[in-house]
Specification:
The protein is mostly helical and 196 residues long. Helix content is 52%, strand content 3%. Helix 1 packs parallel to helix 5, helix 3 packs parallel to helix 4 and helix 3 packs antiparallel against helix 5. It is globular and about 45 Å long.
């Protein structure tokens, strides 16, 4: 566990804090990478750190704005799935990191504005969802934590394959030595992508 999520005051705050901790792991995996390194695929997988940043940003927006708020414009169309994990011409790691920050702020605002986590929404039509299924905001947040955590692990492996830097080293590079973590009420710096 390279970071410690601050103590929560309620369920909503706790879920948002754990989601943000996983976002931080993704951002740290990108810390200091060049654009060339960010799109490299050094493992047996076709995944890259930049592609993962793009995917988790789009995935979060799709679940929060698209599913929870029923905004079809935020949904990822089936014809876009093939491009979901890779950068297209004109896309950059830096651009997707900025977009991910905007998505995180949007998620925070939307979730804080809900009357409760029991608010539910219809799941989209897809082969992997049962027809006419609904899920609560709570379930959606838990799913996003699961999704981002899984991809944070992928990003850790890709990053270590690129330059040997581990999650612990990246936490220290961004936040200072392990053990110097901020207090529960202090914000954590996850660092921009292009600093050393």
């Amino acid at each position: 566990m390279p970071t410690l999520v601050h103590a929560e005051h309620d369920e909503r705050e706790g879920l948002l804090a754990f989601l943000d901790a996983q976002r931080g792991a993704i951002r740290r995996a990108a810390f200091g990478l060049t654009e060339e390194q960010a799109v490299a695929t050094p493992t047996a997988s076709s995944l890259s750190v930049a592609g993962l940043v793009k995917h988790v940003a789009r995935c979060e927006r799709s679940w929060i704005r698209g599913v929870l708020l029923d905004d079809e414009r935020a949904m990822i169309a089936p014809d876009q799935w093939a491009d979901e994990h890779r950068l297209l011409e004109g896309e950059t790691l830096a651009g997707w990191l900025l977009e991910y920050e905007a998505v995180a702020a949007e998620t925070e605002e939307i979730i804080q504005g809900l009357p409760g986590l029991e608010v539910d929404a219809a799941l989209p039509t897809a082969p992997w969802f049962p027809p006419n299924s609904r899920r609560t905001a709570r379930w959606i947040l838990l799913h996003l934590i699961e999704e981002v955590a899984r991809h944070a692990g992928h990003a850790d492996i890709i990053r270590e394959s690129l330059d040997g830097r581990t999650a612990f080293e990246l936490v220290a590079a961004v936040n200072g030595p392990i053990g110097d973590e901020p207090a529960d009420d202090e914000p954590v710096n996850d660092g921009p992508a292009n600093e050393d």
